[in-house]
Amino acid sequence: MNDRILGVAALALAAFMTAAGWGIEAPFAYEPVGPRAFPLLLALIIGLCGLWLIYKGGHQVEANPPGANARIALMMGFAVAYAFLFQWLGFVIATTLMTIFVGRLFGGGWIKCAIGGAVMSVLFFLLFDKVLDVVLPTGLLETLI
C-alpha cells in the first residue's frame, strides 16, 4: 500500500464525516458554534491530510512487523467495544477497561495497567465532570458518584 491509497481513504472518511456531521443540531442554544463544529473541523483536517498524502505520495510503505496487524485489529475492536459500552458501564469503568487492554497490547503488566487505568479514569472524570462541567455517564457507578 502506498501513501496515495491512504490519502484517497482519508478523503472518503472526511466526506463521510462531513455528511454525517452536517445534520447535527442541538435541541437548545448550546454554544456559538454548536455541536456540529467538532466533526466538521475533524473532517476538514482529515481531508487536508488526505490531499497532502495524494499530492506528495507514491512512496512505498514498509510492511508491519509480525503480529502488528493482529494488535491493530484488537485495538480497533477495543475502540468499538468502548464506544458501545461507554454509556452502560460509565466513563470510569469503560475507560479503566480500555486502558488496561490497550496497555496490555503495548506490553504493560496487568497490575500497572490496572492501577494506571483506574487512576487515570478517575482523575479524568473529576477533571471533566467537576472542573470543566462536562457531564459524563456514570453507568454502573451512578450511586457512588
From TrEMBL:
Keyword Signal: no
Keywords of this entry: Membrane, Transmembrane, Transmembrane helix
Superkingdom of this protein's organism: Bacteria
Extent of the signal sequence: none
Span of domain DUF1468: 5-137
Residue ranges of the TM segments: 37-55, 76-103, 109-128
Keyword ATP-binding: no
Descriptive protein name: DUF1468 domain-containing protein
Organism this protein belongs to: Achromobacter insolitus
